[in-house]
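lol so apparently i was supposed to do this last week
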Amino acid sequence: MAVLEILEVPHPGLRAVAKPVATVDDSVRTIVSDMFDTMYDARGIGLAATQVAIEQRIVVIDLQETEGEGEDAKPVRKPLVFINPELLSVSDELSVYAEGCLSIPEQYADVERPARCRAAWLDEQGVRQEGDMDGLMATALQHEIDHLNGVLFIDHISKLKRDMLMKKLTKMRKAG
Ligand code: ZN
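anyway here it is w/ zinc ion bound
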């Protein structure tokens, strides 16, 4: 178990473009395991290696959606690993989610992205996978692939909204 330090804006490391993983070996699987520890510890639903200063194209996601109803309702862990993920196609139809990011603590903004996407990636065994995503999963994967390219969700909103959000973050940090 290793909880890694998460880079926060404006750390320049968040702007790095990550390199493809050449071989999915034990060292990559250790990174994946540490990334899950870090993501769950921070109560996130996704994390890109870029956010923990590892410049490799690795993403972990677990939406931890609630299953069951009433008193039986509880979030269920479904850890998903995406190595060298790429978008094969995206829908013309867009959807809006209030996105947040572990690298921009406690700040949220509506971001418009393609509602559905088809992606390809390598799993933890290095086997190529392909799949169609929609809903929050489509948004989460696109958000995390952005990280691998040095792009943050605040890059998708207007300068006015971005400035306001950064001001709120600065204020929050000063308040401790
Ligand atoms: Zn993020």
